[in-house]
Amino acid sequence: MITSIMFVRHGETLWNQQRRYQGQADSPLSELGLAQAELVGKFLSSRRIDAVYTSDLGRAVQTADCIAKHHGLSAIADSRLREMSFGIWEGLTREEVMQEHAELFYARMKDNLSHPVPEGEGPEEVVQRFLSCLEERIAQHEGGTIVVVSHGAALRMVIASLLHIPLGKSQCLRQSNGGISELAYDRESRSCPWQAVTINCTAHLH
């Protein structure tokens, strides 16, 4: 019995525009981000969706609500679906981080697993909490279709983990604002329980 999971990254935020690290801090959707969220909702309106789960951060909830309303559903928030915490980098622009934390920034470019941001999370921690939520939700909706609205880094890491891609290469899986990645889960398949249907589909945004 196959369960479909559609992973959606929230729409663009003001901090995305400013190239600021958001992490578990928050920033509202920009005008473009609101439009992206509405387009995701319209695109998915023709699919049968059994439930919409979302990070409890505002930018994800706003996006999830735009999807859920087409199906007579209320998005269910869960803190385990939050973005990776970037610790002391949160609120800083990419340029500020490169100036103030240059050594760590470039070390993480080569190996982010071995160089965590102070007061932040490691990739394994993000995947562990995210998957604990996902396993519960799949058990509740086996054979159905669910939407999970989350964040760029968290989604890259989780999708990489499910597809057996090394976490250190998760940045190779682009997750655009409003992008949709659909995976199919078949618990009876021993060789390949998780299959990628689409990765970062953005055709509905254009």
Note down, in words, how this protein is organized.
This protein has seven helices and six strands. The model has no long low-confidence stretch (mean pLDDT 95). A hairpin with a 7-residue loop joins strand 5 (180-186) and strand 6 (194-201). The protein has one domain: Rossmann fold, CATH 3.40.50.1240. With 206 residues, it is of the alpha/beta class. It has a six-stranded mixed beta sheet with strand order 3-2-4-1-5-6.
> Terminal Cα separation, in Å?
34 Å
Return the CATH topology: Rossmann fold
What's the structural domain tally?
1
What is the overall silhouette? globular
Largest sheet: 6 strands, mixed
Number of β-strand runs: 6
Which percent bin holds the helix content? 25-40%
What's the number of helices? Answer: 7
What is the strand arrangement across the widest sheet?
Answer: 3-2-4-1-5-6
Q: What's the short story on this structure?
A:
36% of the residues lie in helices and 17% in strands. By secondary structure, the chain is α/β, with parallel strands linked by helices.
Give descriptors for this structure:
6-stranded mixed beta sheet; 6 strands; 7 helices; 17% strand; Rossmann fold; 206 residues; alpha/beta
